Amino acid sequence: MPRAVAGPEIERLIQLLARLPGLGPRSARRAALHLIKKRETLMQPLAAAFDDALGKIVTCRVCGNIDVRDPCTVCTDAEREVGTLIVVADVSDLWALERAGTIRAKYHVLGGVLSPLDGIGPDDLNLSGLVQRVHQDEVREVILALGATVDAQTTAHYITDLLRGRDVAVTRLAHGVPVGGELDYLDEGTLSAAMRARTPL
Amino acid sequence: MPRAVAGPEIERLIQLLARLPGLGPRSARRAALHLIKKRETLMQPLAAAFDDALGKIVTCRVCGNIDVRDPCTVCTDAEREVGTLIVVADVSDLWALERAGTIRAKYHVLGGVLSPLDGIGPDDLNLSGLVQRVHQDEVREVILALGATVDAQTTAHYITDLLRGRDVAVTRLAHGVPVGGELDYLDEGTLSAAMRARTPL
């Protein structure tokens, strides 16, 4: 926003909104104006939702999920298989897998992946909690749902080593052609992985 | 967000964020997670900015601008020309013109444009205020900065008629080739307007 067309309060609102992922300076202005125009129907409820979240949201001490209770809704869900643990890097991955809805197991959120370049080592991830859960909860399968980047794969290998010797199967998500994907647009790595992991029809 | 991975508070936060312009369901989830992770450095300041805005922001009774004071910062700015009034449809247009920074005049925000199809008639716009200001404030020029849609042009003609007979020049923004624009990509209407309004070099 330009200088001197309104008080600093509106400028500050725009600056804060611009820090949300997906909003740039221009869309933050549009969002701010939208919020100001819909003060009663949008800004007020959102302010209340923020206050609610600020007062209530906690990180689950068992799995690292974000929720308003600890242990979280997933950890206390009696209908989920207890023998299977899905390891994800981030809460957003947990949400994504739940949207897919293939499997109703419990999760373990690492809080990132190993990344030597960014200075993220094993101590920065929730790994001791994972080993402890595998030990205590009689987990039979650990599914590593960690993406296909170099850092994610390094993390997957590290966890596999960590769990070696324990009576637990460690699996990872399949690599291959994404549903709806055209071969033409896929990189060589994906195509090679899909070819190697080809399945009988 | 899927069912039963967290309390309804997070779901509600996502739903409200998804109502911001520029954010869809997916980016609203990302924004919610970002806000939750940055509770202290982003969500808390944003909640405070909302409370601040909710308590303070008002519509200027003189020009229709949005600000924390009434009359607004623009109307009380002594360095702006008083003889020129720029008529805009929306506060966002006022902001856009101030960013361009070509002219330091006062504004008049109509709150929309005439739109028979949407049921927006002259009584729904801040037109009586405009006539009154032209009369009282010794305005010499009214610049109609109203866009080039059919509705905006209808509104421009309506205002021109309204101010006819008064000692005031009514002008509108030039139509033409946008700066950086390629002729190839421009529509016929813009090209015709630019050709008709050609200027000597």
From TrEMBL, chains A, B:
Zinc finger (C4-type): 60-75
Pfam annotation, one family: RecR_ZnF
Limits of the Toprim domain: 83-178
Source organism superkingdom: Bacteria
Record InterPro entries: DNA_Rcmb_RecR (IPR000093), Rcmb_RecR (IPR023627), Rcmb_RecR_Znf (IPR015967), TOPRIM_dom (IPR006171), TOPRIM_RecR (IPR034137)
Family annotation (SUPFAM superfamilies): Recombination protein RecR
Gene3D superfamilies on file: 3.40.1360.10, 6.10.250.240, RecR Domain 1
Keywords, alphabetical: DNA damage, DNA recombination, DNA repair, Metal-binding, Zinc, Zinc-finger
Keyword field contains DNA damage: yes
Biological process (GO), any one: DNA recombination
Stored HAMAP family: RecR (MF_00017)
The protein's role, per its UniProt record: May play a role in DNA repair. It seems to be involved in an RecBC-independent recombinational process of DNA repair. It may act with RecF and RecO.
NCBIfam families: recR
Annotated family: Belongs to the RecR family.
PANTHER family hit by this protein: RECOMBINATION PROTEIN RECR
Name recorded for this polypeptide: Recombination protein RecR
